[in-house]
Amino acid sequence: AATAEPQKVAHWLTDFLQQNAPDPQRLRSWLRPANRDKGLLTVLGNSPFLALLVKKNPEFLNEHPSPSSHCIPSPDELSHHLLQTNSWDEAARSLRKCKQKAYFSIGFNDLTQIAPFEETVHALSDLAQSCLEAGYRWLDRSLSQRFGIPMIDIGHGWQRSRFVILGMGKLGARELNFSSDIDLIYLYEED
C-alpha cells in the first residue's frame, strides 16, 4: 500500500479487525478495489480523519466501494431520514452520520484515484447541497408546526413567504474540498 507509515496502518488494521468482524469478501473489495493498486490501506495511511471515521463506523465497510456520484444521498433521501427524528439533536446526528458515510466514500475514491479531482469536488459540493436542503426541510417543518407557516399578504390574499439559501464561493462554484467551509446567504421574502 502507498503510505508513509505502513506500521501505523498495520497496527490500526489489526486493532480494527480485533474489534470488528467485517464480511471478508467486502473487506477484500475495500482493501483492493477491482483493477486498482490502491485501497483501504492507502486511505488509512494517508488520512487520519477517514481512518477515524471508519474506526467509529465500521458499518461503512458493509457496502462495496462505489463511484463518488453514487454515494451522495439526495435531499429526498436525507429528508426521509430526518423526518423520522423527533428532535433537532436526533436530526443533526442522523444528518452527520449520512454526511460522514458519504465523506468516507468520496475520500476513499479520491485517495485511491478512482475519482478524478473534478468529480471529488463536485461530489463534496453536491453533498453539502443535499445536507443544506434536508436540514432546511426539517427546520421548516418543525418551525411551521410550532409557529405556523410563514405567510405574506400579496394584496388579494395570502401566500407562503418564499425563502432561498444561496451558496457562495466554492459551494456556489461546485468546488468544495475536504477542508472547505461554506459561505451562505439566507434570503426571505418578508418578515
Short précis:
The protein has helices at 6-19, 24-31, 40-46, 48-56, 75-83, 88-111, 117-147, 169-172, and strands at 151-153, 158-160, 163-168, 183-188. The chain is mainly alpha-helical. It is elongated and about 70 Å long.
Radius of gyration: 20 Å
Oligomeric nature of the chains:
single chain
Categorize the overall geometry. elongated
Strand order of the largest sheet: 1-2
Largest sheet data: 2 strands, antiparallel
> H/E element string?
HHHHHHHEEEHE
Q: Are there runs of 5+ residues with pLDDT below 50, and where?
A: none
The percentage of residues in β strands lies in: 5-15%
- For the secondary structure, the number of strands is 4
**Helical region count?**
8
**Helix proportion range:** 55-70%
- Could you tell me how far the N terminus lies from the C terminus, measured between alpha carbons in angstroms? 57 Å
Write down the overall mean pLDDT.
85
| Class computed from helices, strands and strand pairing | mainly alpha
